[in-house]
TrEMBL record:
Coiled-coil stretches: none
Pfam families in alphabetical order: FCD (PF07729), GntR (PF00392)
This protein's name: GntR family transcriptional regulator
InterPro entries recorded: GntR_C, TF_FadR/GntR_C, Tscrpt_reg_HTH_GntR, WH-like_DNA-bd_sf, WH_DNA-bd_sf
Domain of life: Bacteria
Alphabetically ordered keywords of this record: DNA-binding, Transcription, Transcription regulation
Organism: Simplicispira suum
HTH gntR-type domain sequence ranges: 16-83
Example GO molecular function: DNA binding
Length: 224
């Protein structure tokens, strides 16, 4: 089906390093549980699946070890980190602080095109949530993050929040049957409208609404 509301193409960027391309490809596999928590990570296998060289794949994997998405164990090599239910609430708490900062920066610094694009992404999330199309919803979610992160011009905050976003996406894919994406889509629209209008308080409130939604979802899973 062709959408009447296509996802935006991010602002033109310099040619990306192969290691960054590899990181994004591996991140997608981890987020969607294509590579399940606890699974071994074989460099040669990842290189073959991503059609990238082993050097950029190795660099990307080392970055993920540093951020905790992948763990290195003696005699067992690299493993995808497990989803820790108790620690997940700390992930959300930390992400809350960063998301609020990024939202405020984007509301203040976004270009006119970025403001329009982020609303288009949120609209796409609402559409796909109503259809119950989780994969398309997650693609729109990722596209919104890309525009939001670019618009914030806060590289330090973005570098810190990206691994936390991956953790939250892994959690969602693992327990998606318990969630309601429509509520998440509405929170993203609140965030997008705040950024689009340049209202920092509105944008931060949207970010907090999204984190409230993720926290309630996580607590519901933990308390089962």
């Amino acid at each position: 089906m062709t959408s009447s509301n296509p996802l935006p193409i991010p602002d033109a960027q310099p040619k990306r390093r192969a290691a960054d391309v590899a990181y994004d490809a591996i991140e997608s596999m981890l987020s969607t549980l294509e590579i399940a928590p606890g699974s071994p990570v074989v460099e040669a296998d990842i290189a073959a699946r991503t059609k990238l060289g082993r050097t950029p794949v190795r660099e990307a994997l080392l970055r993920m070890v540093t951020s905790g998405l992948i763990v290195q164990q003696p005699r067992r090599g690299l493993l995808v980190s497990n989803i820790d239910l108790a620690e997940h609430l700390d992930v959300i708490q930390t992400r809350r602080a960063l998301e609020g900062l990024i939202a405020a920066c984007s509301a203040r610094r976004a270009t006119a095109l970025q403001r329009k694009d982020i609303v288009r992404c949120a609209e796409r999330m609402l559409e796909t949530a109503e259809r119950g199309d989780l994969d398309d919803y997650m693609r729109a979610d990722h596209a919104l993050d890309v525009v939001n992160h670019q618009a914030s011009h806060n590289r330090s905050a973005v570098q810190c929040v990206v691994p936390l976003i991956v953790q939250c996406r892994r959690f969602w894919y693992a327990y998606q049957h318990e969630g309601d994406v429509r509520e998440g889509a509405r929170a993203h629209m609140h965030l997008a409208q705040g950024i689009a209008t340049g209202n920092e308080a509105h944008a931060v409130a949207g970010a907090n609404q999204l984190m409230d939604y993720l926290e309630l979802f996580a607590r519901r899973i933990i308390n089962q």
